[in-house]
Every structure is written in C-alpha cells, then in structure tokens.
Amino acid sequence: MKVYTFPQGGIHFTDPTAPLAAESVVAFLPVLSVIPLVQHPGAKALPLVAGGSSVREGMLIGRAQGPGSAHIHATVPGQVVRMVSWEMTEGITNEGLVIRLKGSFEQLGKPEERFSWERLEPGELQRHIVEYGIVEMEGSGRPLADLFASLNKIPEPITLVVRCVFDDPWLVADYVLCRERATAVVEGSIILGRACGVSHIVYAVSAKEKALGTMLLAEAQSYDIPASLVLVSSRYPQRNPRELELALRMYEARGKREHPAGPALGSLLIQGPATLAAVRDALVLHRPILDRYVAVGGSGVKNPQVMKVRIGTRIGDLFAECGGFTGEPQRIILGSPLSGRRVFEKNLDEPVIKTSYALSALLAKQIGGRVVRNCIGCGACRTVCPVGLDPEALFKGLVFFKKKQEQNSGRAVECHGCGCCDLVCPSRFSLSTAIVNAALGEH
Ligand code: SF4
Ligand code: SF4
Questions:
Q1: Where a domain ends, among 249, 284, 319?
Q2: Burial grade of 234 (CB within 10 A; 0-12, 13-18, 19 or more)
Q3: How many domains does the chain have?
Q4: Exposed end of the chain (fewer CB within 10 Å): N or C?
Q5: How far is the CA of 413 from the centre of ligand 1 (A)?
Q6: Rounded mean pLDDT of 248-263?
Q7: Which of 162, 178, 177 is CA-nearest to residue 232?
C-alpha cells in the first residue's frame, strides 16, 4: 500500500526515555482525587457540589458554562473535602474539588451493561455525548458540543478522519489504547460519524503500524458507513491537521485519477482514538470520561510505562508508581516534551485531566544547556520547516530588528508552532515561540 505524507520538511523524532509500547498498567486509585473544573479551553465549569457533599462515581459535579466549556464528573465515589486552586502556568490558575475515596463503585469492577444506541437520531447521539462531557482528548480539550454547534457551517460531504498517527514517541499511550480498545475506537467512530452525518470514515494510520490499521478497518466493515485505511508517514508533524490533510488530499487525488467518478473526501473532521473510545463509552456504557491512558517517563523516571489512570490522580503518585525519580528532575512536562506544558514549579500535586496523554520528568542532561549563540547561518531551520518558511529570517526580523509581523513578509501567521526549527537549531534559538507570538501580535 502506498504511504502518503506532506511534501517538505519535518523530522524523524525518537526518544529512548519514552515508555515502550507494552501493555498498559492500571494505576492505583488515589485516596484523594482532585477533579479540576477546567479541563477544556473555555470557562470554568460551575461547581454543583460543595465541601461535605457525597458524590457517586460518574456523577455530574460541574456544569459547562458556554462555548469551550464541558461538564465535569466525579471519577470516584466519596466525599467532597474542599475546593483547592493552583497555578498551572504563571498567572493562570485552575480550581478543583478534592474528593476523598469512600463507598462503592458503580462501574469499576462491575460487568458492563450495554445500552443500545443504534436507533438514536443524530441529535440524540449528540445530546448524550454533550451530557457526558466528552472533549477532544488529544488536543486542547475542545468540547464536542462546540463541534456539533459548528456542523451547519461545514460543507458536505464530510469525512471523519480517525487519526492514529504516531509521529512522536510520546503518543505511545494512544497507540496502546488503540491496540487494547480497537473495538471501542471503531464503534466510537461510527457513533460520532452518525452524530455528524459523515459519509465516509478514513482510518489514517502510521505505515509502521499497518497491522493496527488493518485491524481497525476489519472492525469497521461490520457497520454501514463506508470506511478506508490510509497509511501515512511517521515523520513529525504528520499528525498536525495541516500536514495530515495534505497527505489525505494526495490520497484523494490519486483515487480520483484512478476512479474519476468516485466519491470525494469533502470536508475533513479529524478526531483521535481516545476521544472516540470516550464517545463509545458515553453511548454504550452511559459513562463520562473516568480515566485515560497516560505515557509516564523521561530520563528522571526509573520505570517508564503506559498507565491507565483515573482523572484526578496526582502526577506525583504516578511517578511513585513508576519507581520514583532517578535524580532531581529539572522539568516536569504534561504532554510531549516536544510540545507539552511545563508544570509550574514542578508541582507534583497537579492532577491528571482529560487531555493528559503523557507525563515526563526530565533530568538536566535531557534538557541540555540551552546556551544561546549567534546564528551560524546553517539553514537547518529552513530545511525542516514543513510550511516552507524561513525561520531564520523571520526570527531575525522580529526579534533583532523588531519589525512587525506585517513588515516581515507577513508569513509568521502561517507558522503552526510545530517546533521542528527549534529542535535542529544548533544556536538554540527559540524560533517557534518568537514566530508564533509575532503572529499573535505580541511583538
Ligand atoms: S515552528 Fe513554524 S517556523 Fe518552525 S518549523 Fe514549525 S512551522 Fe516552520
Ligand atoms: S538553524 Fe539556527 S543557526 Fe541555523 S540558520 Fe536557522 S536560526 Fe541560524
């Protein structure tokens, strides 16, 4: 099978400190969970319980407030102890409800009761998905409610793209989830496909995981939405929406050449496997997002592993379950070290949220001395930019000559912040940050 990709730039990214793609390990249930009221890009969910309240596993405890906001549910049964707040990055705080584990679980350890969704209309499917607070778990946590609200602006036909693209070793938790829950991922894609009225589903899978793609496609054959498997490269940033769409448009163009009357992909709606498994659980089990797969590792961690973790578990507990630290970590990162968020002041009390797909502790040697030197004009940043920008020229114009982005060819807005240029720059310039900030008008 042909492998599709984007035409220029990118890097092959490896990291021996990421966990291996072995079976997941179920993390211990925390005695105290912290359930954040912000696990999405919008406004804080409105708390519905207070200190002293008893909560059940899966109970609604925070109500969404407008676009960008999603419902929040208790992930363990117990009693609300208090409300806490903490700084996530400088000046940006979050708040959460502390729940002391108590009482019995309604779902965990019980046989799964299966609810039927097959006869539900698209609007009813959407209502269920919104009710269970499902968000895009591989990205910023955008609620699927926002996607449903924008559907009438998306031109038909629509293709749902199931993104199983592993261009970063820190996406290993997604990979393990795909292997362990392939049936749920496919059923979730069919449910979301019906809810959004898609005419086609494409499983976009890294070519090195062709066996996984074949398995997903075989599962999908038992449903009535036409499905295809498209193999794509693992060159970073292949999973970025722009680069993934470029690869899929090449696949579409080739199909058109071979079958001119064949169907077109139309608008692409890209979703990841964790989100789709959550959609399936919402409809089939009537269950909100209670847990997620997290890759825990980095040079500072003794035994890196992929863990299945209850939302609200302290990240310090996960490091402890991985055997603790090998030395004093200089940096703790939620998400990939390439693109994730640095945990403010290495706060080990931060909880895992719906979007926490990876967690790493990095020793000084892994970070490397970022001593900034002069540009040596090597051109490496131009070679790897997938957009075809000249990061050196943009950076110098913006930072050294203080030109506005419009005076600087205006191309900074095309940068999608993949960070390839930073990774290869021998002079250690933070090129992507400067360029993205310029595009946002912060220079
Ligand atoms: S961060 Fe921006 S400028 Fe740098 S390689 Fe990526 S797209 Fe190009
Ligand atoms: S990679 Fe760094 S040193 Fe090389 S040209 Fe680009 S900015 Fe200059």
A1: 284
A2: buried
A3: 2
A4: N
A5: 10
A6: 88
A7: 162
In the numeric block, the tokens 């199909």 are attached to: 255
278 and 393 assigned to the same domain: no
**Is the residue at 120 inside a domain?**
yes
Verify that 128 and 254 share a domain, yes or no. yes
Instruction: Kindly state whether residues 261 and 384 are assigned to the same domain.
Output: no
Residue 7 sits in the same domain as residue 123: yes
Instruction: Provide the whole-model pTM.
Output: 0.94
Q: Residue 180 sits in which domain range?
A: 3-14+116-284
Q: What is the pLDDT of residue 8?
A: 97
Q: Whose CA is nearest to atom 2 of ligand 1?
A: 415
Domain boundary at 237, 257, 284, which?
A: 284
Q: Could you give the angle at the alpha carbon of 267 between the alpha carbons of 262 and 268, nearest 5°?
A: 105
- Residue 74's nearest CA partner among 289, 363, 306, 392 is 289
**Residue 25: band (very low, low, confident or very high) from pLDDT cuts 50, 70, 90:** very high
Confidence class for position 443, pLDDT limits 50, 70, 90 = very low
The ligand 2 atom at the shortest distance from the C-alpha of residue 374 is 3
Distance of alpha carbon 243 from alpha carbon 104, whole angstroms: 46
Residue 111 pLDDT level (bands cut at 50, 70, 90)? confident
Q: Are 53 and 148 a contacting pair, CB within 8 Å?
A: no
Same domain assignment for residues 402 and 278: no
Ligand with an atom nearest the CA of residue 425:
2
The full length of the chain comes to 443
Structural domain includes residue 96? no
Neighbour count for residue 7 (Cβ, 10 Å) = 11
Shortest-distance Cα residue to atom 1 of ligand 2: 425
Residue of 422, 427, 428 with the most ligand 2 atoms within 8 Å of its CB, for mutation: 427
Q: What is the CATH number of the domain that holds 245?
A: 3.40.50.11540
Percent of the chain with pLDDT over 70: 96
Banded model confidence at residue 370, pLDDT cuts 50, 70, 90: low
Looking at residue 145, its pLDDT comes to: 98
Query: Which residue type does 275 have?
Result: T
Asked if residue 382 lies in contact with residue 435, where contact means CB atoms within 8 angstroms, the answer is: no
Shared domain for 120 and 261, answered yes or no, is yes
Residue 346: inside a domain: no
